[in-house]
Amino acid sequence: MSVTSRYREAWEGFWREAPDEQGAVFWDAEPALTVARHLALFEPHLTEPGLPLVDVGCGNGTQTRFLADRFGQVLGADLSAAALDHARAADPEGRAAYRELDASDKSAAQTLHAELGDANIYMRGVLHQCEPDDRRPLAETIATLLGGRGRAFIVEPSQAAGAILKELATSPSGPPRKLAPVLRHGIVPGAVSDEAVPGILTEAGLTVLTSGTLPLVTTEHTPDGTRIELPSVWYVVGRAG
């Protein structure tokens, strides 16, 4: 199975138009406010920190580069070739490697696992962007890449975040400047309920080791200057059995 051409083209169009500078994209917050907070929750559960680490849905690589400064082998993987062009341009020293990956494609996941062996995974805000039929295959890809030894940190906007985004999108003055391109390209957060996510993970052969809530920081602000933060739920998972 692989993603629809519409979905792929939406992301390609978005990233082709996206500015190069860090912070210009709605979710591209500085690592100190995103992945650094997540690592504080994730690292205590890593049984083998020396495994390769895959940043699934890496986008322009802002968080990937932070991870590459802390782990020995880091791979940023994304569906969009245009996103990876941004990531490579922002990483001229090659601190991380980058790979085009359709994370709903079982054979692609198996090929990557054969190359890397078991890996740890960081994934931020990918599941809720998937079309419904791609959610289970995405979770199965995570299970494949983890193998028997890896751990994954998954963070997703909660249901409450969907209401906030809907309110922003339908504001009488129009959506915020950085949210508008997301909507224009048809990249609309899916309605994944908080209760559904653990089931999706479990059905794919994963075990939720721990979970919690945390604000998901964006780069956008309200008219009064307040930074927009979205409620999120995070999970640390491993392969069942």
TrEMBL record:
Its domain of life reads: Bacteria
Q: Which GO terms describe its molecular function?
A: methyltransferase activity
Q: Which Gene3D superfamilies match?
A: Vaccinia Virus protein VP39 (3.40.50.150)
- The answer to whether keyword Methyltransferase applies is yes
For the keyword Transferase, the answer is yes
What keywords appear on the UniProt entry?
Answer: Methyltransferase, Transferase
Q: Which GO terms describe its biological process?
A: methylation
Q: Which InterPro entries match?
A: Methyltransf_25, SAM-dependent_MTases_sf
One Pfam family here = Methyltransf_25
Where's the Methyltransferase domain? 54-146
What is this protein's record name? Class I SAM-dependent methyltransferase
* Organism this protein belongs to: Streptomyces thermocarboxydovorans
Its taxonomic path starts at: Bacteria, Bacillati, Actinomycetota, Actinomycetes, Kitasatosporales
